[in-house]
Amino acid sequence: MSAERYDVAVVGAGPAGSAAALAACRAGARVLLLDRADFPRDKPCGDGIAADALDVLAGLGVTGVTDGYPPIANLRLVGPGGSQVSRPLPRPAYTVPRRVFDARLVAAAVAAGAELRRHTVRTLHDDLLDRAAVVIGADGAGSVIRRAQGYPANADGHLAIAIRGYAPTTNAEQLIVTTRARWPAYAWSFPIGDGTANVGYGEVLRGVPLSRAYLLDRLARLMPGGEPLGLRAHHLPLSTRRPPPGRGRVLLAGDALSLINPFTGEGIFYAVLSGALAGAAAAAGPQRAANDYARALKQRLGRHLRHSGLATRLTKRPLMVDAAVRAASRNQAVFTRMVELGLGDGVFDLRTIGRIGAELVHRPSGAP
User: Fold this and answer.
1) Angle at CA 296, nearest 5°, toward 293 and 301?
2) How many angstroms separate the CA atoms of 151 and 241, rounded?
3) Which of 358, 364, 360 lies closest to 319, judged by CA?
4) Is the separation of the CB atoms in 49 and 96 below 8 Å?
5) Between vectors from CA 235 to CA 22 and to CA 152, what angle results, nearest 5°?
6) Exposed/middle/buried for residue 150 (C-beta within 10 Å: 0-12, 13-18, 19+)
7) How far apart are CA 325 and CA 98, in angstroms?
8) Tens of pLDDT along 174-217?
9) Inter-CA distances, 155 with 164, 206, 251, Å
10) Pairwise CA distance, residues 343 & 55, whole Å
11) What's the confidence (pLDDT) of residue 1?
């Protein structure tokens, strides 16, 4: 890299990094955006884009990232014991391949003034800190910046693995099929709108390495059909084991901060939100960045993260998931709460908890 000076250097140009660059540029900062890859590039992911993520991007002045991809109106959820619910989503979602979605965000960041360079950051060395007042690590699940700050990767029990590919489909709704085997685990099929769907399978790691063959077998059992194309696996660091969001002149965002919803595995909303908050805090200067960012994250996500963590603990028993699915099939409000908790920044309320509890106590004969 050259010896030019920047207000903010962002490592990683995925959704978190691009959102950080956008927010910092909008605040008047000079921003360097680094990534080891050229765009467009593939990124293993479920490709689901929820409405909450689009709200954050709209606040950054970014629109049109889902152009050409039809809205998905419905979600079908199958519980571990076979209970089902299919209802309209509170707001439509989209399935946009990451090679398209990420490239559009990078282009928006560059249009806003960020300087994009292809560069592989292997350590948080002194010259990077010398060239930027604040560094934002948005470099994913294997974050170099996180490790350089002394924070290890998530341990088993707080780390999931998933494999995804693309397969033909005639389905027009999002489909999630959970399973008792190796719970918590599920398979998904998210239609793109062109006759194909992003399909995959994921589960929480428990200290035993999982092979590609094993993951594909689980996917085939839950989502029958031919082997998908473009198969790639990836890790998901769950939000139940997060490092501090910032220390000194270094901030973390997105997957690097373990911001993956432990209830659903969703990460795009967390990525763009945390990136936007980090970029705004970084633009305020190195003296305030870490404190401002921690405060903003707590205000925006603190209550939600507590509730998603609680939901994860409660749903360690598959019968709780089936009770929640049955409650959602009976009541739209319960379904909405579950979706908002899993795809956005929603929380549970006592009425929802009570309705799920009633299904648990009075579950039908033969139900799990």
Assistant:
1) 120
2) 11
3) 360
4) yes
5) 85
6) exposed
7) 29
8) 999 999 888 889 999 999 999 999 999 999 999 898 999 999 99
9) 22, 9, 21
10) 13
11) 55
